[in-house]
Amino acid sequence: MNGETSELCLLTAAARRALKNGTALNYKCPQYVNAEKFVFINRNGEIIENSAEKWFERLKSTGLDDIFMLLPVSACDREIHGFSNSSGGCVACFYNSGEVTYFAPRWEVDKSIRLWNIEYFESEWDNAPKEKPMFEDNTDEFKKVLCEIAEFAEKIDQSFWAGYFNKALDILENGFCDNDDKISELPEKNRRLFYAADKADVFGGMGSWNDSPPFYAEEKGLSDEYTRLSNELFVQIKLALLYAVNEF
May I ask the CATH architecture of the domain 3-124? Predict the structure, then answer.
């Protein structure tokens, strides 16, 4: 999965669980991240917190009522999905006062240590919806496109990629088994959707499903089918993550 999207998922899931249970934030910064900074808007100037734990405590102290991860659900950005600062995602904060703000990340690599620094910048959400967002379980639709694209991958002699799609389908049907469970706070259905989306997210740059498979499809006169299935999978991955992280 795109690292930026994965990080948004992990941070939001941890924050939602802590807010729901009335506990401190239980969140571990990934190994590929050097530092995280959270920049709050304030009439008297910026307020900066240098850890997710302090960020969450400040949110609670200012009347946080609910928190969600938001992602654009569109196939038009499939070609740039593997690059940094391409997810378009954010963490949306709903307050008891009725105010809504969102934190959008900016990733920068520290080449000297080969790790990432992330800054989350808060902005006011102008004309925010009065109702909190709701997300539907797309398990059936996700399974359908995974079956179709796995068969298609075999059709264009791409068994390697078919293996990814079949594994994602297996996770949806049978669950995820791994000692390195990075999002264990989610209910079982949500975890299945999260890990299936993680496995099925094969989009990126060189060496990805965006790279050579379209040329194999073109050779067999199947370019339109490649585009249709790839776009549909991309959308279902986003919908799966939105449900997995926000609906529990």
Answer: Roll (3.10)
